[in-house]
């Protein structure tokens, strides 16, 4: 600012500006300060974008792949086999921690 004032205050006189060099020092410093300020906000902007876009991407992947997911995102169909015991009455395999059959309701104990 001092460099700019010095330059414009010597327009009417025959003297040249003496502190105009300060103007050229200030411009790169302002640029570096601006870049550092932007870099400080990159993490905040990335977290905001991730929070806004992740649910949309998950829902889109589930819709486009009929619930099977794309690269592990959007999987809504559970077609993996259960890891629990078989029911003695109907033969359906239940979850490992289930106490009753998910098919017929018979006690698994």
Automatic annotation (TrEMBL):
Protein species of origin: Nocardioides euryhalodurans
Q: Has the keyword Transmembrane been applied to this entry?
A: yes
Q: What is this protein called?
A: Zinc ribbon domain-containing protein
Q: Supply the alphabetized keyword list.
A: Membrane, Transmembrane, Transmembrane helix
TM segments?
Answer: 20-44
- Indicate yes or no for the key word Transmembrane helix: yes
């Amino acid at each position: 600012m001092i460099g700019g004032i010095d330059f414009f205050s010597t327009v009417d006189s025959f003297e040249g500006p003496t502190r105009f060099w300060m103007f050229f020092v200030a411009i790169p410093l302002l640029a570096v300060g601006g870049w550092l300020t932007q870099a400080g906000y990159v993490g905040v902007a990335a977290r905001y974008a991730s929070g806004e876009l992740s649910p949309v991407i998950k829902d889109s992947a589930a819709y486009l792949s009929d619930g099977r997911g794309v690269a592990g995102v959007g999987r809504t169909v559970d077609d993996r086999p259960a890891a629990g015991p078989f029911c003695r009455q109907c033969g359906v395999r239940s979850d490992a921690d289930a106490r009753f059959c998910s098919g017929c309701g018979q006690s698994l104990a």
